[in-house]
Amino acid sequence: MKRYSRDQMAQHVARDIPEGAYVNLGIGMPTLVANHIPQDREIVLQSENGLLGMGPAPEPGAEDYDLINAGKQPVTLMPGASFFHHADSFAMMRGGHLDLCVLGAFQVAVNGDLANWHTGQSEAIPAVGGAMDLASGAKQVFVMMELLTKNGESKLVERCTYPLTGLRCVSRVYTDLATIYISPDGLMVADLIEGLSLEDLIGLSGVPMQALDPRRNAH
Amino acid sequence: MINKILASAQEALSDVHDGATILIGGFGSAGLPTQLTDALIAKGARELTVVNNNAGNGEKGLAALMKAGCVRKLICSFPRQVDSWVFDDLWRAGKIELELVPQGNLAERIRAAGAGIGAFYTATGFGTDLAKGKETRQIKGRDYVLEYPIHADFALVAAETGDRWGNLTYRKTARNFGPIMCMAAKTAIAQVHRIVDLGAIDPEHVITPGIFVKRIVQVERLSYDPTPAKRGEQNR
Fold first, then answer.
1. Most CB atoms within 10 A, among A28, A81, B84, B103?
2. Which of residues 126-185 of B touch A (CB under 8 A)?
3. pTM of this prediction?
């Protein structure tokens, strides 16, 4: 049984982003998605600090520290890029102009609740950044995460136990074991790694799921 | 003749008082008003409320201001950084108050202050810990949280080019909070790398119109070291 690598997970997300979409990629694993967008597809990446049309990292030595992404790493511009201030940047989210954001998560609940900003431990420094704005503002929220914690606990849960970032906002979860859609009819499994059955997946996660296409997941 | 240009950062900050609320621009390495922040540390005003997206890095700039004991309260969205130990220590010791605000709410609360908005409803944060105790309202079937503007006494902002009327342009993502912070403060102070004659900035390219800016200071462009500072290292 071979889990999807982080790059494979990023590929799965990239495959599902439609032509012409305006997309915000969260810090961490979601930034990998940029490397996998098909060449023939025009997608505009937004960076919350005030940039549309974000390009890849610059060549070593060509970094400009006035041109950075939300993770504070140097980036480049695509032709057609634009700069704007923070209030405009978050109006793009809040105003429903951003088609999609891809975020990491501590937990996602079966109803689409997202927890990704705080573990709730009293000694942990709380930091939220743009997570809540993206969760409530983007038209669609995709999550990329490993399905299980290091201790084997499922991050896909009946109810989030960590503090919430947004309510009923996640529509798809791309994990290292399966891709899962969150629908009004419950969790639908769109794909699974080889050698893992739907029953195995339900056993590992402890939440009910069904196959999106029963024929495709019949192995 | 209107002339908002001052000779030094020290002069520009000469009337900062104890207990002032100060907006400080910048996001990551971009748009940090380093020289103005240094002058604020030298000024030594205390009991400050500071608004910035982050909580300082290493032991310079905002971190140095906090280490000097000048900051009573920080309003910010993302205090946790690999090199934010000055804030971390103060917060864990209960020596600094933190108001944590979602980043877009922070930006809009600043903008609202500058635009004369009394308060506004936003869906961001509804149902989360950061909306606890706040008024909520359902509008056309959607849940919103009431958020109030952040007014300030001073704004310290880094821009690229300015003129004696206070018109400003910015450079790339260094724009970040600059335009809205200039609007929200009674006294907005911009440090710029270039001062040009009136009319030299194409009116189509003015990002912050001079009406929002009270003082301008020209400063050198500093080089930026991207390596995160480590505790115990000096001058980073």
1. B103
2. 126-130, 170-180
3. 0.96
